[in-house]
Amino acid sequence: MSTGTSQSPTDPRRALGATLRRWAAGEAAGIGVVRVLDRHGFGSVESGQLLAGTPGGEVHGLLYLGALDDTAHPLATEAAAGAATVREAHVAESSAVAAGLACAGGATLVGHPLPAGPAAALGEALEAARPAALLSTVDGASALVLTGPDLMTEHGSLGDGAVGEAATAAARQLLRRGAIATEQVDAAGTAVLVDVWVPVPSVLVVGEGALGAALHAQAGLLGWSARTVTTVADAQAAVSAFTDADVLVLLDHAPEFDSILIEGVAHGRGFLGALGSRRTQSARRERLAAAGVGEGGFAAIHGPVGLDLGARTPAETAVSIVAQVIALRAGRSASALAESAGRIGG
């Protein structure tokens, strides 16, 4: 039985993808994209910011809630006309706050042409909420789009074969995090800007109870989807189809549900979490070991699931679980921000 499915809100990238696909089909004389090469300030903002435009001035997408429009829109038009340009943009406190950002900031933007073939491939992937990546040299001189579940299909080229090979390997490694990412990487001595887009996480709750309801509520707040199943067969079928973005939270302690974790370890995709006391976890581990699960498999199972936040209520426990998922997807340690030297907000 499957119950309690909550749908995530519409992803604006899907609308952008549809526009890219339409433009690439011949409705635009050229396509240009604008991306964030570097930034400082603005508070917490999502990676994978993308804006696209045509030579005629039509623009679709947003960079930092529109705060960079004055710089980004002309840059998109220039890029669509064939110019690859790097430009600085600065936003004052009042303008940033008015746009919905936390504070003032600045960004280095790169605008570059995107040929019809790669643009169509990127558009189709974004519209269908499938994994995709856009790679370019930091000067925007060449661009490559990767699509497919493992980003194995290439559209376009970065010119140099060694650069392309190293950059695609870096993009595929970022995909394994299961989170949208924007990073500059050193690809065979060449700086490459990599944007990776992955599907919105989906939480599979196995078992019923107050925590399951709290996980549904928490997923909704994050824009994730969630569903609950209560049978081993339904859970196994779902886990066997997991992507890197999927999350299992096993609430049921019955031994027959061990098979779901075994399936998850064998499949090698997604986040595998299991609730239970340390005694429950120990008994489960003994059963899994007897079934042939090795140390590598146990490393993939998060049990007891969640971060040590001192959670006492179902709602607080749900927060601790999704916090662990977020930290792992971002490759962070989940320590206090005050103890970290890295960028705040990812």
UniProtKB/TrEMBL annotation:
Source superkingdom: Bacteria
Location of the XdhC Rossmann domain: 203-325
Entries under InterPro entries matching the protein: MoCofactor_Util/Proc, XdhC_Rossmann_dom
PANTHER family registered for this protein in UniProt: ALDEHYDE OXIDOREDUCTASE MOLYBDENUM COFACTOR ASSEMBLY PROTEIN (PTHR30388), MOLYBDENUM COFACTOR INSERTION CHAPERONE PAOD (PTHR30388:SF4)
The protein, known as: XdhC Rossmann domain-containing protein
Species for this entry: Pseudonocardia autotrophica
Classification of source organism: Bacteria, Bacillati, Actinomycetota, Actinomycetes, Pseudonocardiales
